[in-house]
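Troubleshooting: if your tokenizer reports a length mismatch, compare your output against this known-good record of 426 residues.
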Amino acid sequence: MAEKLKAMRGTHDILPEEAALWRRVESAFVEVATRYGYDEIRVPVFEATELFERGTGFSTDVVQKEMYTFLDKKGRRLSLRPEATPSVVRAYLEHGLARKMPIAKFFYLGPMFRYDKPGAGRYRQFHQIGIELLGTASPVADAEVILLLWQFLKAIGLTKLGVRINTLGCRPCRIRYSGVLKDFLKDKLGALCSDCRERFARNPLRVLDCKNPACRAILAKAPEVREILCEECVRHFESVQACLAEAGIVYAVDPRLVRGLDYYTRTVFEVFHADVGAENAVGGGGRYDHLVEEMGGPATPAVGFSAGLERLVDAVKAEGSMRGENSGIEVYVASFGEKALRPAFRLAAELRARHRVWLQYDQRKIDRQLGTASKLGARYTVIIGDDEAARGVVRIKDMVSGEQVEMEMGAVAAWLKEKIGGQRVE
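Known-good structure output:
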């Protein structure tokens, strides 16, 4: 017997019942993003590896340790996308969207790939939703992006939420703070974990993101970025906070929040949920004012966020805040006898313009078909036998009450519309 095949470690199947819940979450995101004036963009699943080295940041753990990178048949280095922001920026530049859209607003959703240690809500193929807002340096845009994420999470029924925000300052502030942090850490390297010692050499700010308890104890005494911020960065961060307060968003300033990517400047943020484990962020992002320029475009300020769908779905399940769409069968079309097959097929095709219909494909006894209709949760079963086909009628059984009615075949669609409703699909 052949060995049973299984999904690869770090991947997972989304089965029909859960997929219905995913659709609800995704639809809610699309609806909220559209209300805010964002348009969908779809980018490739793989890109030139250089795109992520330049965009995500060569010094990040994502690029150094987690990317799926391979050579194609022409020897070109390609990588499965670990995130979408560099791809969106590449598309923005490649297609000259800056000329058409002085302020560009995109949303996306789809799979990403990182070779990470699988855990609760963390997979090697995972799914993200996100937005990117390019073309404005206004702190109002930062607050609006946070508010969009907050309202989306509320729209899917989540309540156990909190917001953490911080500022990393502009580029000169970041450079200055990196130096201050490096001075603080240089005589403590022996007490840091191996990852943090690597980060110290590549990007000291990334040490602040470490989850190791020993490292966090050391970092608790580290200088904070607000101690070295320029006046303009202070004003920007104060404006973000004022806008959030105007919108009624309760937040906490977390001076250790840096996020895991090199391109962030000024505002960074996370929204977290109490029921999704120790690493409880369900979404986050920040401002990235130099990424477009670093990827060959003009100086273009930008801000955005992403959120992992796996964690969002886990949070929705934990709160019981949303159920999957009702994808059950409304109408079961049962036929028996050779003469009944064609009219049954024709009627099922007509009813599918408005209803979810299951057509029995092979000849079975009617009691077995009714049993199948019951298992599928059908509300009504339309019964067509050779006798009914010859007379141009059908019998309809109410699967709840057990009552049956007979009517002309041409009257079925209108009768079911009155009983069930449903919007016609042309």
